[in-house]
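Data deposition worksheet. Section B asks for the primary sequence of the deposited chain exactly as it was used as input, without tags or linkers unless they were present during the calculation. Section C holds the resulting structure in token form. Section D is free text for depositor observations; keep each observation to a single sentence. Incomplete worksheets are returned to the depositor.
Section A, Depositor: J.P.
Section B:
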Amino acid sequence: MAHSTFPQDLPVPKDDGACNHLTNAALPSIALISTGNSSSPVDLSQLQDLTIVFCYPRTGAPDEVVPASWDAIPGARGCTPQACSFRDNLPTLKDYGVKNLYGLSTQSTEYQKEVHDRLHLPYELLSDEGLEFVKAMRLPTIDWEGKQLVKRTTLAVENGKVVKYWYPVFPPDRNVLDVLDWLKGR
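Section C:
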């Protein structure tokens, strides 16, 4: 199945309270490598302007068959549709004051660069391969095939603090519309 669509019968994630601590949480000063410039890491805690960071578990490789075990995890499937919906709505996000947009996963920068180029993303992806940011922020994770991955969570950050979060995020391709609804009411 194409990675840009997902089955309609996926299990829906439930809010387990794993992100309740995030409102007004200060971001840690951690240098994250971006797909744009690996020699100039991004420290999200230093960005003063409104920044949206959507955290996603993983994107599949172009010819990868998505296993049933992945689809069985509530909220896991849909990283590519989520990334593309943010791509397609970036001008509107900017119209409503978003200065920076990033996707963040625990995949390597090299892996993310392929996705960035294949999906023609006009924003950068950040690698937290060592889970430093995920652990410091106490973001929820998924254990899958021996890897720890971040659960889908979106953060609105301003002046080094979380001003809004979305969790659980489902369906993933609608996340950007939820962000836009919040921005319009701000």
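Section D:
The chain is about 25% helix and 20% strand.
Helices lie at 68-71, 79-88, 90-95, 109-118, 132-137, 175-184.
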